[in-house]
Amino acid sequence: MWAFLSSQPVQTALIVGTCAALVSALIGVFTVLRGNAFAGHALADVSSAGGAASFLLGISPLLGFLGMAWIAAFGMEFLGVRKARERDLATGVVLGAGLGLSALFLYLDVTTTSTTGATVSVMFGSLFAISRGLIWPAILAVLAVFALVGGFYRPLILTAVDPDLATLRGVSPRWMGLLQLLVLGLAVAVCALAIGAVLATALLIGPAGAAIRLSRRPLQAIVWAMLMALAAVWMGIWMAYESYYWFSGNAWPVSFFVVALIFLFYLLAMLGSAQQRKFRYRAATALPGIQES
Amino acid sequence: MTNQRAILAVADLSVDLGGRSILRDVSFDLHPGQLCALIGENGAGKTTLLRTLLGLISQRTGTVMIDGEAPRKHRALVGYVPQKITFDPDLPLRTRDLVRLGLDGHRLGLPLWNTRTHAAVDAALQAVGAEDFADRRVGELSGGQQQRAVIAHALVRKPRLLILDEPLANLDFGSANALVDLLGKLIAQQQMTVLVTAHDMNPLIPVMDRLVYLVDGRAATGKVAEVVQPEVLSKLYGYPVSVLRHGGRILVLPDAPENADVANLNRCAGH
Ligand SMILES: Nc1ncnc2c1ncn2[C@@H]1O[C@H](COP(=O)(O)OP(=O)(O)OP(=O)(O)O)[C@@H](O)[C@H]1O
Ligand SMILES: [Mg+2]
After folding, report:
1. Residue B3: inside a domain, yes or no?
2. Residue B263: predicted pLDDT
3. What is the DSSP letter of B94?
4. I need a surface site. Which of A17, A222, B67, B156 has the fewest CB within 10 A?
5. Chain A residues whose beta carbon lies within 8 Å of the beta carbon of residue B82
6. Residue at which a domain ends, from B183, B202, B219
């Protein structure tokens, strides 16, 4: 255990992983509540183009992911988002265009700058290879997300419940939608850095989706989602580290373990909430004084 | 009553949606403590009218004044219960939380615990008889229970004008009566003004002071006795209608052509 914790790549991985888990769980709950899971997934995928471009431009990958996620967010907002179906169409179109760019930039990365690992690290992440210089930017991004979501917590929830009720309380659903996309961009950037652009969705949607089924209050859902995301990331890092010994010198990628754990938690939550509902139903229908045999 | 300022004044309101004219020259006033029923068939324009009053849709011509000013300035005075809200069964939100959002959903910062907020939320829950399901998720309530939850959400800020869109449509006879009683109580105890839409005016007859009768975007307004007259309604519908009154209930029926009437009678009698 001591060897594990004292290794520098492990420390960096734990810090950046924790950042990713916290922001994705927080914003993930709002994303799932608004039925925006597909938009979240698309933003994450499209941000890979930014990650790929950052190698060409020689800028921080975090900035690359963030820039592209924000461009995509504005694109979706401007392409028309009135009806759910149009929103899915706009999202799909932006997703396609973004992944095309990503293919181009990754090709250029490999051919011109000979960064052979670029494709894997942009798409699927390499938590143990993150440079220490990214720790502070990641923490700053987390603080920004917490400040914004904490500040606009109630308007965001009210908008998720019903846009008309929000308007009548003086909350603008359009501004809240934009705010949510901007914050989502920040969260996606941190997640993409940690476990890759393609897998960021798992961290964003999985814990939040599971937590929502287990909770009766928004705040409760957020806490559950954070606990699950943290557990998945920490255990994933530890298992990847240990897997070096399990598979005689061939360590498996962290991202695999993290995503597998999230999937497992999601399954457990589904089973748990089905059980909970059955129990509640029985309690509600059982007649007083009659015992079930 | 007429010397008091109208809480809601609508003048010559016309609204277009998607290039079609939906409302034409609708005018009416509403004074504090009145209950006004907005009656019309499906598609008559009731929801459109309410959404225009709330500033959610903008009009082509005409004005809406709430307490003498534009609707946007007076959002706090108005409580609105939409015709239908679909709550996802998985939405992690208790009835109590929904009601609380009606009070402070626009505020910044996290919702901290405080006694005053709790008392207001409890009072609103109690007013609509929602204590029993206060701690259950809104998404798993029945349609009628969800409606009561939304009414509590609208009431918690003690609005002066309460606007309800088809509140009776989902309710069985007993619950509809209970809701009508509740509206009567709010008016008597809090001097609230209520505007409520329905396709059938009968359940509201005991409590309503004024009537806005909408047919295809045009309105006849006034006291019940003034509006529910064959001449007035025939003009509004554009064809002859009769008004039948029986046991305190009112039925508006299109007149059948007279010859057809006789022919039918004869057929029924077996000739
Ligand atoms: N966004 C829209 N674009 C175009 N037409 C619309 C729109 N919304 C409503 N309409 C039309 O306006 C008319 C009035 O609709 P409205 O919803 O106000 O009727 P309503 O009286 O509330 O009916 P119901 O009793 O069924 O609720 C209908 O003919 C409807 O087709
Ligand atoms: Mg309607």
Report:
1. no
2. 54
3. B
4. B67
5. 162, 164-165
6. B219
Do B124 and B19 share a structural domain?
yes
- pLDDT for B4-17, tens place per residue? 788 899 999 999 99
Residue A227 burial (CB count, 10 A): 15
- Say what percent of chain A tops pLDDT 90: 36
Chain B residue closest in CA terms to A216: B92
Give the pair of three-digit tokens for residue B42: 């499906």
Domains and CATH numbers, chain A: 10-280 (1.10.3470.10)
Is A112 a residue whose pLDDT tops 50? yes
| Same domain, yes or no: B155 and B266 | no
Cα–Cα distance for residue pair B150/B98, rounded to 1 Å = 8
B178-192 tens-digit pLDDT: 889 989 988 988 889
User: Which chain B residues touch A210 with a CB distance below 8 Å?
Assistant: none
Count of structural domains within chain B: 2
Which of B14, B20, B213 to mutate to test ligand 1, by most ligand atoms within 8 A of the CB atom?
B20
Query: Any idea which of A246-255, B102-111, B153-162 has the lowest mean pLDDT?
Result: A246-255
Q: A159 with A176: CB under 8 angstroms?
A: yes
Mutate to test the pocket of ligand 1, among B39, B46, B53 (most ligand atoms within 8 A of CB): B46
Same domain, residue pair B115 and B194: yes
> Where is average pLDDT lowest: A121-125, A222-226, B122-126?
A121-125
Ligand 1, residues at Cβ distance < 6 Å: B 17-18, 20, 22, 40, 42-48, 83, 199
CA A89 vs CA A185, A190, A279: distances in Å: 19, 26, 40
Q: Is residue B210 part of a domain?
A: yes
Say whether both B76 and B112 belong to one domain: yes
Confidence of residue A20 (pLDDT cuts 50, 70, 90): very high
Region A92-112: what's the mean pLDDT? Answer: 85
Q: Which tokens belong to A70?
A: 């924000």
Total-model pTM? 0.86
Question: Is 80 exceeded by the pLDDT of residue B3?
Answer: no
* Residue B112 touches partner A, C-beta closer than 8 Å: no
pLDDT for res A282: 55
Binding-face residues of B in 113-142 toward A, CB within 8 A: 135-137
Q: Judge whether B73 lies within some domain.
A: yes
B182 vs B163, B189, B267, CA distance in Å?
14, 10, 48
The pLDDT of A67-90, averaged and rounded, is: 77
Contact A153 B110 (CB under 8 A): yes
B33 lies in a domain? yes
Q: Please report, for the domain that includes residue B185, its CATH number.
A: 3.40.50.300
Write down the pLDDT at residue B100. Answer: 95
Same structural domain, B144 and B241: no
- One domain for residues B236 and B269: yes
Q: Where are the alpha helices (DSSP H) in A109-217?
A: 118-124, 135-151, 153-161, 163-168, 173-195, 200-214
Domain that holds residue B271: 228-271
Instruction: Mark yes or no for CB contact B92/A221 under 8 Å.
Output: yes
Distance B39 CA to ligand 1 centre (A): 14
d(CA A88, CA A95): 10
Query: Domain check: are B131 and B63 in the same one?
Result: yes
Show Cβ contacts of residue B151 under 8 Å, excluding neighbours closer than 6 positions. Answer: B81, B128, B164, B167
Q: Does B98 touch chain A (CB under 8 A)?
A: yes
Residues B55, B98 within the same domain = yes
- Closest Cα to atom 16, ligand 1: which residue? B45
